[in-house]
Design a protein that fits this description.
It contains five helices and eight strands. The protein has 142 residues and is an alpha+beta fold. The longest helix has 11 residues, at 33-43. It is globular.
């Protein structure tokens, strides 16, 4: 295995400018875009979506196991997520699936996972998604 020893030097860093900080490594210029992205996230310019569309393993599970119609999944159902760990120690993404129209009709502002602690009757399915994209969801209401 070939090892390499690279050193970087910040040349032109000004967080108020529109360009990113440029760095040099052996005479070539690169851009430090990750710093700007993190800075924008901290500033609130790129916030994560709280309400998400059903996708991946959760989509497949709801279609195959719970016989959900794909049009219903695409147009009316949404979810909130929370990262966590199962009792056995494996990292998972916990999911709560709900009908978007039910939330809107009741005038509820979904701010995150905790919203459904206060309104558990709105949860249609609840469960988790493993890191290998395998879903385990059980029907709660509806």
């Amino acid at each position: 295995m070939i090892g390499c020893n690279l050193s970087y030097r910040i040349l032109d860093f000004d967080p108020t400018r529109s360009s990113t900080a440029s760095i040099t490594s052996g005479g070539s210029l690169a851009f430090l875009g990750t710093y700007r992205m993190k800075r924008r996230q901290k500033m609130g310019l790129f916030k994560k979506k709280v309400i998400k569309e059903i996708a991946g393993g959760a989509w497949g599970h709801l279609v195959n196991v719970h016989k959900m119609d794909v049009d219903t999944l695409a147009n009316t159902l949404r979810c909130v997520e929370r990262e966590g760990v199962l009792d056995g120690g494996g990292p998972v993404t916990f999911l709560r699936v709900f009908r978007l129209s039910d939330v809107q009709q009741r005038g509820i502002n979904v701010t995150g996972w905790e919203t459904f602690d206060q309104h558990p009757d709105l949860i249609l399915f609840e469960g988790y998604l493993t890191k290998t994209n395998q879903a385990f969801l059980e029907r709660k209401a509806g």
